[in-house]
UniProtKB/TrEMBL annotation:
Residues 1-19 form the signal peptide. Gene3D superfamilies: SGNH hydrolase. This is SGNH hydrolase-type esterase domain-containing protein. Keywords: Signal. Pfam families: Lipase_GDSL_2. One of its GO terms (molecular function) is hydrolase activity. SUPFAM superfamilies: SGNH hydrolase. It comes from the Eukaryota. InterPro entries: RhgT-like, SGNH_hydro, SGNH_hydro_sf. Residues 27-205 form the SGNH hydrolase-type esterase domain.
């Protein structure tokens, strides 16, 4: 019993040591961003809510952004100033990068990849760690129940850059397709911001996909991060059960 409680105390202090020492900065488009209805929009806020309380998690993703417009419109500079300030606090600073939804409307995948490569190099030059994330799927279904996917080549490009640059990779695209195909169109659409908006998420959607990213992150970093487990939600996600 005493040994057990000692173990718990040790585990908790290890967690809070990581909590003080690790920060997250999120970079991307509206499928990561905080939405107009608080905590809706993208997976970012659900992910931040999955962390040990007090962990810095700064969602700098922006609606409508491509890798090019994110830089040109000044949002990248905002991300960089947060990254600099987290690194200056001597925190391990992980920076997620997820694009594709808007890049695909203007240019071939290689254009996004080249821009992502520059972002990865810049993040490293500041002493932070890039984590590439493939695009969250849209909830648009074919009549046979499979996802009508348009984002595959942009997910593949993200994977390619992660291999070339040897970064951590979270394959959210594959994992989210697998889950929404398992729960089916009705349950998948209940996670939409509006019933016919298959791109953005309501609050329940950010909880589900934020947990999915948290679990992919925890697996990629083998338990080193201040992520609070949520076994029942993870169970639903891994077994294709709708939570909402
Ligand atoms: C998201 O934005 C809303 C305003 O629209 C704000 O009230 C809320 O605090 C933001 N949430 C986070 C986690 O930044
Ligand atoms: C990548 O960045 C360049 C500017 O450096 C821009 O011209 C191009 O449109 C960007 N590509 C995408 C897909 O945003
Ligand atoms: C898991 O799914 C079940 C069945 O839909 C639901 O009742 C439960 O609330 C879900 N649990 C979580 C944590 O979302
Ligand atoms: C989220 O799920 C809860 C519980 O099922 C439900 O009451 C609520 O209406 C849902 N929210 C949205 C925005 O769909």
């Amino acid at each position: 019993m005493m040994l057990l409680s000692m173990y718990v105390v040790l585990a908790i202090s290890a967690l809070s040591a990581y909590g003080a020492g690790t920060s997250f900065v999120l970079v991307g488009d509206s499928t990561t961003a905080n939405g107009t209805t608080p905590n809706s929009g993208g997976w970012g806020n659900g992910f931040c809510a999955s962390l040990v309380e007090g962990t810095a998690c700064i969602n700098t993703a922006h609606n409508g952004a491509t890798t090019g417009s994110f830089v040109a419109d000044g949002f990248w500079d905002i991300s960089l100033s947060f990254i600099r300030s987290e690194v200056a606090k001597q925190r391990r600073t992980l920076v997620t990068i997820q694009f594709g939804h808007n890049d695909q409307k203007i240019a071939p995948p290689e254009s996004m990849g080249a821009n992502m490569t520059v972002m990865v190099d810049t993040i490293r030059s500041l002493g932070a760690e890039p984590v590439l994330v493939t695009s969250l799927t849209r909830r648009s279904f074919n009549s046979d129940g499979t996802i009508s996917d348009q984002l595959g080549p942009w997910a593949d490009e993200t994977i390619l850059i992660s291999q070339q640059k040897q970064t951590h990779l979270l394959d959210l695209h594959a994992k989210s397709i697998e889950y929404v195909e398992a729960i089916g169109p009705d349950a998948a659409h209940r996670l939409n911001r509006l019933p016919d908006d298959n791109t953005h998420l309501n609050v329940n959607g950010t909880i589900v996909f934020g947990r999915m990213v948290a679990d992919l992150m925890a697996a990629s970093f083998a338990g080193q991060l201040p992520i609070v487990p949520n076994p029942p939600l993870t169970f639903n996600i891994t077994n294709g059960i709708p939570s909402f």
